[in-house]
Design a protein that fits this description.
Bound molecules: fe (iii) ion, zinc ion
Number of helices: 7
Radius of gyration: 18 Å
Structural class: mainly alpha
Strand content: under 5%
Order of helices and strands: HHHHHHH
Shape: elongated
Number of strands: 0
Largest sheet: none
Helix content: over 70%
């Protein structure tokens, strides 16, 4: 790989993301199948549909900018998906397994958000406004998918922790407060335990 300009870096990022997304198109159905919670399964299926659209956005960007999308392997996504496969193959309690699936999936979303965030910034710097706009649409979807997983995790984590009524648990005031901001960059286990909900 030869990097001589910001444009080269941008091109490499886009090809990395393209490969990452195509890997996810294959992995998400397996994640969905492995989920016990119907809500979680639906979330994976919905995100699969979005992911197919994200591949198309990257193809559009490549077509517009004369980038060859294929030919790069995103090793990071390969590793993250391998970690997901370990969970898929694991035996044990359904709620525990679902909690682990969510943890693996949120690592994927955060990796994508990092890659797309940089790509969008580079597109803006390079004056590629249409590409920046398309990347922004995907970032919004990845962010929403991450948030959705956090919401689903709230019920599943309490269940996995041995609380039978996990899903019907009353939210305390502390939990409702600060939810918006704090959830942004936290994983599914990033809160709740210390907020005195029981
Ligand atoms: Fe994606
Ligand atoms: Zn990568
Ligand atoms: Fe690391
Ligand atoms: Fe995603």
């Amino acid at each position: 790989m030869k990097l001589e300009s910001l444009n080269d870096v941008f091109t490499d990022l886009i090809r990395d993301l393209y490969n990452a997304e195509t890997q996810l198109v294959k992995a998400l159905p397996k994640m969905a199948k492995a989920a016990s919670s119907e809500e979680l399964r639906t979330a994976f299926e919905d995100h699969l549909e979005e992911t197919e659209g994200q591949v198309q956005r990257l193809e559009q960007i490549c077509e517009d900018l004369g980038i060859r999308p294929k030919g790069k392997t995103c090793k990071a996504m390969k590793g993250l998906i391998e970690e997901g496969s370990e969970v898929i193959e694991a035996s044990g309690e359904p709620a525990a397994k679902d909690a682990a699936l969510i943890a693996a999936a949120q690592k994927v979303e955060h990796y994508e958000i990092a890659g797309y965030g940089t790509a969008r910034t580079f597109a803006q710097l390079l004056g590629e406004d249409e590409a920046a706009k398309l990347l922004d649409e995907t970032i919004a979807e990845e962010g929403a998918a991450d948030k959705k997983l956090t919401t689903i995790a709230e019920g599943i984590n309490s269940e996995a922790a041995g609380d039978e009524d996990g899903e019907e648990e009353d939210e305390t005031e502390e939990e409702e407060d600060g939810e918006e901001d704090e959830d942004e960059m936290e994983g599914s286990t990033g809160r709740g335990r210390s907020s005195g909900s029981r």
